[in-house]
Amino acid sequence: MNVRRHSIAGIPGLAIAAATALGLGTLSACSTDTAAAANTDKFDVVAAFYPLQYLAEQIGGSHVHVTSLTKPGQEPHDLEISARQTAALGESDAVLYLKNLQPSVDDVVSQSEVKTKIDAASLTTEEKHGNEVGGHAATHDTSKNDELAGLDPHIWLDPVRYAQVAEGVGKAFEKADPKNAADYKTRTAALVKKLDALNTEFKTGLANTRTKVFITTHAAFGYLAERYGLTEEAINGLDPESEPSAERVKDLEKMAKADGVTTVFYETLVSDKTAKTIAADSNLKTDVLDPIEGITKKSRGKDYFSVQQANLKALQTALGTK
Question: What is the distance between the alpha carbons of residues 322 and 314, in angstroms, rounded to a whole number?
């Protein structure tokens, strides 16, 4: 994945107290503090961004104190870790991250002495998605954008893969905090059951649609599309801030007409300008399809499940359920 690599802020001689001085929340579902993660009387977990934070909270329950390195509303691909966050991470019990999504996180984790390092990418399978990966998409796109050549990190948008990650996180928590292992096992099983039900909702809800093609701002929905027999056409690559070529825009406009596309989807954490321009030029509608990289006031739901259900409804409307 070709995202811009940011440097990590240098770490001065900080006392660990400085890393926790911003105050500790109760459970991180209510906490927006991205630095204060260490030295609580709970199992302290640092999560890289929202989908992993949500897993840790759901699996850990009252036994864990979870903080996210990525603030609500911040685009996770562009995260630049602060010295306070780095210091707090080193004093925590576990870190949960997704390798290759946030290079600055990867660098800090590799140098950290935190006892339990959980790479979500290692708990399921990753694939290449994008407009140069064969099949339908390649027939429309002649730009061969290099940004689409990397492994797609957006595994959480596929409920099946997300459930696999949940199971792996649960086992890691059991091993790292054995006194609460029984509760972690129970809560993991409950979460996986909910994800199985969500998978069934998507499978049933998207089984019979007028078209199978949808256009998105960036290539975040490849796993979801593959799981439910759809085709994602992305304006940008895996990096949401990349700019499409003029040739790519023309290809999308031709494809939209040929495949009966009605809607161009945009998302809440990046600019909708390009999506709305393409939609206007092609006389198409626009709507939100949320990659759930963070929950904000603009999100169509309060958590992973409610936003996914909003995504399902948006897809059903755009694709034309029969």
Answer: 14
Q: Report strand pairing: 263-266 vs 116-119.
A: unpaired
pLDDT of residue 191: 98
Give whole-number Cα distances, 305 to 54, 223, 309, in Å. Answer: 10, 17, 6
CA distance 33 to 232: 35
What is the Cα–Cα distance from 276 to 143, expressed in whole angstroms?
A: 21
> Quick one: DSSP state of residue 131?
T
- Beta carbons of 233 and 131 less than 8 angstroms apart: yes
Looking at residue 232, its pLDDT comes to 93
> Backbone phi, then psi, for 289, in 5-degree steps?
-125, 110
Could you state, in chain order, the average pLDDT of each consecutive group of 10 residues for the chain (322 residues)? Answer: 36 36 35 51 96 98 97 88 92 96 94 96 89 36 43 95 98 98 98 98 96 89 96 74 71 83 86 82 90 92 97 96 78
Question: Of 102, 142, 127, which is closest to residue 8 (Cα–Cα)?
Answer: 102
Nearest Cα to 90, choosing from 118, 109, 105? 109
Confirm if 34 and 81 have CB atoms less than 8 A apart: no
Per-residue b/e over 22-54, b at no fewer than 16 CB within 10 Å?
A: bebbebbeebebbbbbbbbebbbbbbbbbbbbb
Cβ atoms 80, 108 nearer than 8 A: no
**Secondary structure letter of residue 61 according to DSSP:** G
Please enumerate in sequence order all residues whose Cβ is within 8 A of that of 182, keeping only pairs 6 or more positions apart, or say none: none
Neighbours of 110 (CB within 10 A): 9
Contact 221/319 with Cβ under 8 angstroms?
A: no
